[in-house]
Each structure stands twice: as structure tokens, then as C-alpha cells.
Design brief:
With about 190 residues, this protein is of the alpha+beta class. Helix content is about 20%, strand content about 25%. The protein has one domain. The chain has a three-stranded antiparallel beta sheet, with helices on one face. Strands 6-7-8 form a three-stranded antiparallel beta sheet, with helices on one face.
Amino acid sequence: MELNLHPIATKCFVSGRDFQENDRVVSYLVREGSTTGAGQAGGEISRRDLHEAEDGRFMPPAFVYCRWVVGFKHRKAGENADRTLKLTAETLFLTLADPAAEPSSTNTPLLQFLALMLERKRQIKSRGLTEDGTRQIYEHMATHQLYEVPVGDLNVEFFQKIQEHLGVLVGTPKPKAEPAVSPALVTVATV
């Protein structure tokens, strides 16, 4: 799964003030717009970055995929801009599951799904539960960093609940075309 999004902005979306080194920046992954007439998800996936102090003034669209807080760092001159534009399932998981990030119940279903997907791709590996049994511990295989994800029941209701998130982030399958029936194969029963 890959999304092409803008890297962190240099100015606050709400106030327009420039970010300074180490400012706490709240980032939202949102869908702008609404649904189309056929009930399909419409609108563009966007990233909105704002000063943490401005978070109360931000009026997010109706559909927020996730929210995270990071310290602002100015981009270096030789940094690969194309690489920073690519938000993959792995980087989204690492951002949302970062131990320094503030936990959010809004992010939990997406985080649980990403963990399931990355475990299947062998990018993370389950290392058991926390002592209280409320969080699953995963090891990121490339960095050997440990991440904790709230335990959830991945049942039919869970997937129905996040279906709209997944449809926009992962892509919805194309509807299968009905097979054409050849007139030679149609038989009519007569009585």
C-alpha cells in the first residue's frame, strides 16, 4: 500500500505561521469532500499539519483517518524529496505506533489493521502481549524496534467498521463483470 502525500508542511494550516525547529506539529490524514451520489467514497486524501496550540481551532473534515504529533525538523538540502512523499503502510504504522506519539482511539482500528497486514508481509513480528494483556508487542524486523498495539477482536464487525478507511487507503476492488451469456448456450424449456 502506497499513498503519495505531501511531506510535513512548513507552515501551520490554521494560522499560517512558519514552523520552528522542534515545534510540536499535529498531523491529520483526512479525506476532503464527501461521498459521491452512488455512496462511494469521494474526495481527495490530504495531510493537514498545524501547531499543537492551534489543534482546538482546526475544523477537520468529516472523515479523519488518523492523527499524530511529531517534532518539526527542517529538511536538509540533500534530502530525497521523492522518498519523503511516499507514505507506505510501513511508515504509517511506524508513525502511529511510535512510543513517543500520543495514543488515539481514532487511530486504533487502522493501527490494528496495519499491524495485521505488516505481520503477514513479515515486516513486523509478534512478540507476545504486555503483562496486563491489553497490548500486542510487535518487533519491526528492519530496525528491531518494539511497538505496542492495543489488542482488538479482528472479526467481521471490525472489518465492516473500517471498510471505508480501507477502501480509500488500499483501494476498492473493481466490480466483476457479469459473464456474457451466449445465445447458443441458452435453452428454453417448453411444456
